[in-house]
Amino acid sequence: MIAKGEELAEKIREISVAEFFEKNRHLLGYENPTRSLLTVVKEAVENSADAAEEAGILPDIKVELQQLGEDRFKVIVEDNGPGVPSSKVPVAFAKFLVGSKFHRLRQSRGIQGIGIHGAVLYSQLTTGKPTKVVSSLGNGDPIHEFELMIDVAKNEPLVLSHRTLPNPGGWHGVKVELEVEGRYVDKVVQSIPEYLRQTAIVNPFANLTFKGPNGTSLTYKRRVEELPPQPKEIKPHPHGVELGLFRRMLANTSARTLLGFLTTEFCRVGRTSALQACRLAGLEPEQSPRKLNGEEVTRLHQALQSLKLMAPPTDCLSPLGEQMLLEGLKREFKAEKYVAVTRPPSVYRGYPFQIECGIAYGGELTEPVQLLRFANRVPLLYHQGDCALTQAVKEVDWRRYGIPQDGFPKAPMVILLHFVSVWVPFTTEGKQALASYPEILKEAKLALQDAGRSLSRYISRKQRLKERQARVDLFERYAPELAESLSKLTGKPKEEILAYLRRRLDEEKG
Amino acid sequence: MIAKGEELAEKIREISVAEFFEKNRHLLGYENPTRSLLTVVKEAVENSADAAEEAGILPDIKVELQQLGEDRFKVIVEDNGPGVPSSKVPVAFAKFLVGSKFHRLRQSRGIQGIGIHGAVLYSQLTTGKPTKVVSSLGNGDPIHEFELMIDVAKNEPLVLSHRTLPNPGGWHGVKVELEVEGRYVDKVVQSIPEYLRQTAIVNPFANLTFKGPNGTSLTYKRRVEELPPQPKEIKPHPHGVELGLFRRMLANTSARTLLGFLTTEFCRVGRTSALQACRLAGLEPEQSPRKLNGEEVTRLHQALQSLKLMAPPTDCLSPLGEQMLLEGLKREFKAEKYVAVTRPPSVYRGYPFQIECGIAYGGELTEPVQLLRFANRVPLLYHQGDCALTQAVKEVDWRRYGIPQDGFPKAPMVILLHFVSVWVPFTTEGKQALASYPEILKEAKLALQDAGRSLSRYISRKQRLKERQARVDLFERYAPELAESLSKLTGKPKEEILAYLRRRLDEEKG
């Protein structure tokens, strides 16, 4: 066997993460030309919005799409964010698994360090062209212009050119230009214009402009001149940290004692809880966290799991709020009735999260129900059937609120659900659907039920008014005949009886 | 802005691919304890089967599950494969994106270099324990016993121990032992026993044994003593190679001329096609492939796309064959009728693939239809709703074949679909569903239709027989009365008439 085993082993090679995604690009949302073009725009817009918001800047984001051939486009996305220092531009755009957000627990649109890199890879794979990145920090920093590709076999950035230009105006921000294979569609749900429209609904503090092919042009002006409160970064909650990660945290901590480790590296672990955990695990609070053996690590982990601890803090979340939800819906949909609910924060796997729900009902809306799903202010346009938010809509008993149902509720309405968290459990790297954690499902249903109750008051009042109007109409139709019959029976003049009946009707109406 | 931009940039860090999967373990199939336990078994079994088969060994695979606590198990999987050389064991098991199969186009169960590494990571994450790997190449090689973990922050193997033991018997193979959090279920479709049963159906040349908790014990003996023909490795087909990859192939080739490059690095490009491509692109066949500029690369790529080339060779595929399909179904399901179809090979994105379909009908089977999906001899138990194979079942018009339908066909039957290819387009790294490429969908439907037609002949014959029997039954019931009436009408004796009627009936039956 030796020969065979050795021979097979010679084939064992490393695979770079860029090669992996090149061969599996559908995992990142590049599965067909239409979706691919949308994904490129989406990744760039999310990066821009995150950067501006984190720097405390009201985002101005410009998206432009130039059609270069039947299935070829140049995508240009420019923001007014803080810019990326020139030394970091190559890795930030052209090396997979590099990012600023993965190692923090903080609400943001992107997290994984894969998004914009995927777009750069897709561009070079389909058109062979480098991505142009223009960036400046403003305030004395020149404008840096890069042409970048990814060295796929090594997952390292290739800088094809880097030149600096004067920046007298002090411009700051990032502008990316990618040439890609794609197909442009509009007037459908899974399109770039619809993505931008939905983005505008949940990002009321952003200016969004779009220039598309065939002279399409869209502008979404910001509706509020203030950013939402900055979401805070939090430490992990002990109940959401699994043993393997716990062990790594112990090995990497700069704390010198167990007590120090427990009280500084986690949220909701105070001195009392830390001492209690040590006692339960039979460990000294003063001992070094780096010297525990495997058995001791397990005991300490179990002790922490068994403690009653406060839920993680929730000021790390920045929901949109009921007022903003209502305004967003009112601006985009002509309905008769709007309701909105922001649920209190809750927790899954130690991560705080929050659900918001808005409903627009009736008016110019038509059936079937349109469901708008969002995670951390990002619209989710694909994989609706797989998403916990969709499941929640189906599991609510809408008949209770006077709305017929066949899986989905059947009514002329738009339902908006917004999931906000420090960590979004996407079912794939394509980031289009949420995994069905029971806690998420439950909160989403509660939000829908709250909204459903508000809506049902409106619907039943409307129903009552409709029934009353039907009675009035019926009366109006038969009153003259009735008056005539009564006149014959009583001998009183028909006009007098009719006048009496009308008075009664007016009283009823009043 | 500088300060802010610099400050944000300081947070830009590399993420190891192991960290990525630790935080996103649901992407690899570790989303809940039940599925996680199955995924660990699945990854180990697939590795074992691939290794043995590639070395030309009839696989003997032993799976054992020891319950150590309410939600804790030891998973042991042992094979009689060629073994892994001791120098390669650490990377082959404890470093993500290392594998022997990613860079080849060859039909195999695993491809990505992620599977078994995910199991090792899941084990250390949930129980903090190292994975034990025992391996030998036999034939003079001692037995190597490793305890391995993954250094998650670096994605590098940690060798906790390595000792060698005498191997007088010349044992060769691999045995892995992983301690994991999990939940064991049986008697449901998404269970380890069902996974092994389905594996046995499409791997008739393998011995599979299972020792589970509560004294469960299963044995699937091999039904054939011969391996299927070894699938051949093929070169990529030009029509399936995108521009970016084409450029990399040009840069990395050892060929000295374009002509050499085109004729040796691709399948189905002979001298004539290669010369034609060069001419179309305005390039010299003798020029160095490494010195083309971007424009020339694009022209050559386009020229290749425009050439009519033969479809890729299909002897690289190793389907099960109709005979094996029938035998597999017969052994596992007590039905009245079995049909099987192996479609001729076809091509998607330049990759050859083939679809097989088997149906077992009636007998002890009950509704609803059970769908068994397979890719390269591996059962797919999750994400049925998302899979191209499921979509194909729904899109076939079963009523044509005498089978009622409500989305799925409604009949007491089992449908087996097997996708065989050098590259499997899974929708997630969890490897449970196929992406809906139009070519795959079309072939799967054709396979189902072929099988449906065979089945419909049986069903309609059965239906005719049933109707005839109903007529006979009716006659038997009314014949005496009829004879009596006729006797009264004609005066002939009742017995004579009855005898005549029975003779007619016998003729009808005959």
Which keywords apply here?
14 helices; eight-stranded mixed β-sheet; globular; Helicase, Ruva Protein, domain 3; 510 residues; Ribosomal Protein S5, domain 2; six-stranded mixed β-sheet; Heat Shock Protein 90; homodimer; 4 domains; alpha+beta
Describe the structure.
Two copies of one chain form a homodimer. The first copy, chain A, has 510 residues and is α+β, with helices and mostly antiparallel strands. Chain A has four domains: 17-220, 2-Layer Sandwich (Heat Shock Protein 90); 238-306, Helicase, Ruva Protein, domain 3; 322-458, Ribosomal Protein S5, domain 2, CATH 3.30.230.10; 460-509. Chain A has helices spanning 2-10, 17-23, 33-54, 89-94, 115-127, 192-202, 243-252, 258-265, 271-281, 294-306, 322-332, 388-395, 438-490, 494-509; strands spanning 13-14, 60-69, 72-78, 98-99, 131-137, 143-151, 156-165, 172-181, 207-211, 217-220, 337-342, 346-348, 351-361, 370-375, 378-380, 405-406, 408-409, 413-421. In chain A, strands 7-6-5-8-3-2-9-10 form an eight-stranded mixed sheet. In chain A, strand 2 and strand 3 form a beta hairpin. In chain A, helix 6 (192-202) runs antiparallel to helix 11 and helix 12 runs parallel beside helix 13. The radius of gyration of chain A is 30 Å and the shape is globular. The relative contact order of chain A is 0.09. Chains A and B meet through helix 1, strand 1, helix 2, strand 4 and helix 5 of A and helix 1, strand 1, helix 2, strand 4 and helix 5 of B. Strand 1 (13-14) of chain A pairs antiparallel with strand 4 of chain B, so a sheet runs across the interface.
